[in-house]
């Protein structure tokens, strides 16, 4: 009765083994085979890599077993699991089967990490014969919920933000970070800025975070065992609103519709308002249409459409954005665009009379009418006035012309306009008339300008 098991056994196992030996002896001891043919294994015991929770079995094929017995052991713990078709281990997840011929199987259901190890199929010959197979239990990655790590993270602009992601699994998972939209992650140190597609590590330290880095970040844990898991962190960057106004001066003719634009950056989202220079807050109504078009996580376009412009609509408009961190404003001046047609002398001036501080100058002359037309659709293009005051107006010059006759008495009732700053002064007068000669033009120009000057002087006096 040499099972060869006693060597190196723990005392508990020895007791167990003793009982086992006694049992085996009483059952089978008398019938020990005397044959010369010895049992032999027909195949190696397999090795298994199995995902936790799955079922697995080892198969032991023995020929010429005769009256010898097959036993299953776990080599590392030296525990006898089963003998023949009887279970010895008190483990409901283990079972053995025999196909009635030469094949014995050890089944393990709902495999657990502590099932990993070396399994042995053994025959009680003298000396005993055995073979071994390994079981490796792997666990798919999982991302732990850390108490101090919310998935919605907020930091003030230029401050530091740390994203933490701890993953479990066997083998130990690798944690990588990416931006959900595929943009690069910005990593700053004291001396450098690095942009990387992905970053490996349980902690992603975003130093001096900027608004452009706002958005979804993914922590991805993988260890080769499917499925790979990820967790999304939404990063918000708080900052004071910013407003940009590309056209600070807009000119449009009466009765037309005009759209004023403001570009806003803000997080948290700002409360946006439009108001007029008289302090009146604008609301959407039949006269005004207020829209907000989101451009990204923190920027949007504010449009104010003013319908059927009338005299009262010209003036300053302010767009304002306010959040918890502050307030920003942008002001747009809306001016009337005068379009007049000549009756006696058909001269067209490409002239922009723009005054930053006062209303548009009223130019008038008794008996003669000048035409101020827009060529090419853009004030800045022809007038030579460039910079931030350039207004864009798309209009066909020939059908935009209209008669404007201003009486002198009416003009004098207007407040005199302040002198235009140098860079807003009419800089160019393109005379584009094929009827009059260049000399006539210059003379007419001269007369016209002198007259205009006189009017201004009289008015301001
Ligand atoms: C099982 O793995 C061991 C080494 O880990 C190797 O010697 C043996 O041949 C493997 N068995 C099979 C059936 O591949
Ligand atoms: C193995 O792990 C399972 C589940 O974690 C547990 O129920 C069982 O008692 C463990 N078995 C041993 C031998 O440690
Ligand atoms: C993003 O990072 C990759 C390397 O990770 C680099 O090759 C690429 O140029 C970066 N793109 C930008 C726009 O910085
Ligand atoms: C606001 O104006 C911009 C620029 O003209 C335009 O592209 C956009 O469609 C407008 N948005 C809305 C909501 O009207
Ligand atoms: C302007 O309008 C007139 C008639 O309405 C047309 O004949 C002319 O082609 C237009 N010019 C441009 C530049 O659109």
UniProtKB/TrEMBL annotation:
Keywords: Disulfide bond, Immunoglobulin domain, Repeat, Signal. Residues 39-138, 141-230, 241-338 form the Ig-like domain. The keyword Ion transport does not apply. Pfam families: Ig_3, V-set. CDD domains: Ig (cd00096). InterPro entries: Ig-like_dom (IPR007110), Ig-like_dom_sf (IPR036179), Ig-like_fold (IPR013783), Ig_sub (IPR003599), Ig_sub2 (IPR003598), Ig_V-set (IPR013106), Neural/epithelial_adhesion (IPR051170). This is Ig-like domain-containing protein. It comes from Xylocopa violacea (Violet carpenter bee).
């Amino acid at each position: 009765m040499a099972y060869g098991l006693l060597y190196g056994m723990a005392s508990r196992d020895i007791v167990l083994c003793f009982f086992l030996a006694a049992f085996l002896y009483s059952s089978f001891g008398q019938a020990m085979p005397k044959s010369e043919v010895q049992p032999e294994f027909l195949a190696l015991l397999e090795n298994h890599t199995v995902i936790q929770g799955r079922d697995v079995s080892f198969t032991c094929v023995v020929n010429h077993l005769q009256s010898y017995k097959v036993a299953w052991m776990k080599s590392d713990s030296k525990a006898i699991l089963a003998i023949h078709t009887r279970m010895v281990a008190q483990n409901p997840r283990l079972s053995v089967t025999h196909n009635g011929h030469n094949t014995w199987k050890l089944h393990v259901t709902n495999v657990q990490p502590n099932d990993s190890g070396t399994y042995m199929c053994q025959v009680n010959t003298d000396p005993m014969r055995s073979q071994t197979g390994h079981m490796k239990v792997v666990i798919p990655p999982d991302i732990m919920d850390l108490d101090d790590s919310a998935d919605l993270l907020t930091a003030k602009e230029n401050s530091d933000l740390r994203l933490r992601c701890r993953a479990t699994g066997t083998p130990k998972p690798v944690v990588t970070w990416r931006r959900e939209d595929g943009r690069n992650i910005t990593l700053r140190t004291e001396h450098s800025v690095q942009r990387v597609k992905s970053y490996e590590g349980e902690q992603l330290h975003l130093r001096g975070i900027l608004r452009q880095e706002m958005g979804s970040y993914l922590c991805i844990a993988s260890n080769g065992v499917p499925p790979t898991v990820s967790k999304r962190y939404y990063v918000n960057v708080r900052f004071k609103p910013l407003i940009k106004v590309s056209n600070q001066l807009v000119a449009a003719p009466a009765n037309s519709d005009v759209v004023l634009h403001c570009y806003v950056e803000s997080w948290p989202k700002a409360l946006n308002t439009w108001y007029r220079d008289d302090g009146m807050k604008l609301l959407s109504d039949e006269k005004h249409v207020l829209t907000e078009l989101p451009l990204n996580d923190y920027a949007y376009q504010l449009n104010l459409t003013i319908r059927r412009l009338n005299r009262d609509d010209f003036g300053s408009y302010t767009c304002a954005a306010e959040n918890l961190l502050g307030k920003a404003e942008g002001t747009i001046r809306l001016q009337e665009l005068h379009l007049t047609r000549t009756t006696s002398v058909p001269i067209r001036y490409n002239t922009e009379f723009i005054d930053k501080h006062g209303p548009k100058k009223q130019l008038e002359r008794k008996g003669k009418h000048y035409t101020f037309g827009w060529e090419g659709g853009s004030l800045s293009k022809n007038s030579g006035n460039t910079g931030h005051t350039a207004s864009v107006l798309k209009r066909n010059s020939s059908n935009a012309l209209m008669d404007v006759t201003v009486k002198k008495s009416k003009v004098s009732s207007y407040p005199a306009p302040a002198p235009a700053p140098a860079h807003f002064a009419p800089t160019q007068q393109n005379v584009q008339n094929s009827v009059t000669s260049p000399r006539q033009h210059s003379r007419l120009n001269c007369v016209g300008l002198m007259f205009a000057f006189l009017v201004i002087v009289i008015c301001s006096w």
